[in-house]
Amino acid sequence: MTMAMASSSPASPIKQTNNNDNIKKNRIQVSNTKKPLFFYVNLAKRYLQQHKEIELSALGMAITTVVTIAEILKNNGFVTEKSIVTSTVGMKDVAKGRVIHKARIEIVLEKSEKFDSLIAATANGKVEKK
């Protein structure tokens, strides 16, 4: 497991260890409180129209949401699973003045061979059954 440090303060000297994470165009960071589940499912489909693969990532309680999104996309034939990485991230709790560790998951999904035909069928109002 790897550990990265993050802070809620933008001026803080503590940053995530991998700066490339912040500039990925095909990453969707999921929160379980900000948007409904199918917002992320539809967003993933739109990202897949532009990219060969996407990365879903989440911390803590949002991990369940990321797994559900990945399973919906897989079960409907839109993607195949490429990799799953779990880790622990240390985050500074400013109020308590200590570091708290949160679980993190990153799921990389690759566009399936039938993705384009499924998207076309959805756009035409036809929903294919498995």
UniProtKB/TrEMBL annotation:
Database matches in Pfam families: Alba
GO cellular component: nucleus
All residue ranges annotated as the DNA/RNA-binding protein Alba-like domain in the record: 26-77
Positions of region (Disordered): 1-27
GO MF entries: RNA binding
Annotated InterPro entries: Alba-like_dom_sf, DNA/RNA-bd_Alba-like, UCP030333_Alba
Gene3D superfamilies attached to this UniProt entry: Alba-like domain (3.30.110.20)
Biased composition (Low complexity): 1-13
UniProt-listed PANTHER family: ALBA DNA_RNA-BINDING PROTEIN, DNA/RNA-BINDING PROTEIN ALBA 3
Protein name, entry field: DNA/RNA-binding protein Alba-like domain-containing protein
